[in-house]
Write a structure and sequence with these properties.
By secondary structure, the protein is of the alpha+beta class. The chain contains 11 helices and 11 strands. The longest helix is centred in the middle third of the chain and has 21 residues.
């Protein structure tokens, strides 16, 4: 059985399993929690929320197991070796948001925007691929080959900074209470946060479409560099700036203030770009950046972009 058919069969079998009368009460409670927490309204095009996917993979029953775990342990004797292996691989996944970096032949390079881990997945594993766009999904290791499993939700790339900022604050709180916590353990335990912010994004898109609302903006500032080679070290010498990744000569940084992301920086060629989600954040970030750069960088321009400009 091919991978897609196997995945579909298992999902159908799990949904049939959880329709048993003994689970009715817990499913109703799960449904109330999911929809009330997300505050889901009319869905916007591709941002359709998938309650079933969350219910199967993330909701915890009173005994602490997910429905997928419950199904596996209950029906294990009746499953084929192929099915057991596939479910075990699915149980090791977690929901996250991935940026589509590039298309290489029949494969796509994606990057987890939180853990920064990269994967190559088959091109036919995701529809309507666009670089720099985002996808909410689970990456599964299937015998040394990676693929997206479960429901996949497309997200406009412009919302990457907003999502990172909001989730980062929750992660910091989690780390304060869980000394050995990691991004993976946090994401596995808090998938509802990703769904919630997907709902917020959807609401913004609905207002933009129905009311021509331009309230969602990105405040950007651009600096021109004199000595690009030393700028990276100068930025990293400042304890509130973290390297977020490097790709094809570009360096990405986060500017942290009071345990919150104040802005994001991109260093490429002879330019340093600062992006913030409010005018106040940009003013504060510019003071820090200009103090660090000194005579090594010159302010070039300030711009404000709306959803219309960027989506």
């Amino acid at each position: 059985m091919n991978t897609e058919s196997l995945e579909f069969k298992i999902e159908e079998d799990v949904l049939s399993f959880l329709s048993m009368p003994q689970f009715r009460k817990e499913i109703e409670e799960a449904k109330d929690y999911f929809y009330n927490y997300i505050e889901q309204g009319d869905m916007y095009r591709d941002l359709q929320m998938d309650f079933n996917s969350w219910l199967i993979h993330d909701y915890r029953l009173q005994d602490g197991k997910t429905f997928l775990e419950k199904y596996y342990h209950t029906e294990k004797e009746h499953l084929s070796e192929e099915e057991k292996c596939f479910i075990q691989n699915q149980l090791n996944t977690y929901l996250s948001i991935y940026e589509i970096y590039e298309i290489q032949g029949e494969n796509i390079r994606i990057r987890d925007i939180f853990t920064k881990e990269e994967y190559f997945i088959p091109l036919d594993n995701i529809a309507d691929v666009k670089t720099k766009e985002l996808v909410l999904a689970r990456v599964m290791d299937n015998g040394g080959h990676y693929r997206l499993t479960g429901n996949k939700q497309s997200i406009p790339g412009i919302f990457k900074s907003t999502i990172e900022r909001n989730i980062y604050e929750h992660y910091e709180d989690y780390r304060n209470k869980n000394r050995f916590g990691t991004w993976k353990t946090f994401l596995k335990a808090h998938s509802q946060l990703l769904y919630k912010y997907l709902g917020i994004i959807e609401a913004l898109l609905i207002r933009q479409e129905e009311e021509d609302d331009e309230r969602y903006r990105v405040w950007q500032s651009v600096y021109l560099m004199k000595d690009v080679r030393s700028i990276k070290q100068m930025l990293l010498a400042y304890d509130q700036i973290e390297l977020d990744g490097e790709d094809r000569g570009s360096c990405y940084f986060k500017l942290i203030s009071n345990k919150k992301i104040l802005g994001e920086l991109v260093l490429k060629n002879n330019r340093l770009e600062l992006e913030c989600i409010s005018e106040d954040d940009r003013k504060a970030a510019k003071k820090i950046i200009e103090k660090i750069l000194g005579e090594n960088g010159k302010h070039y321009k300030d711009e404000v972009f709306s959803i219309e400009d960027l989506v």
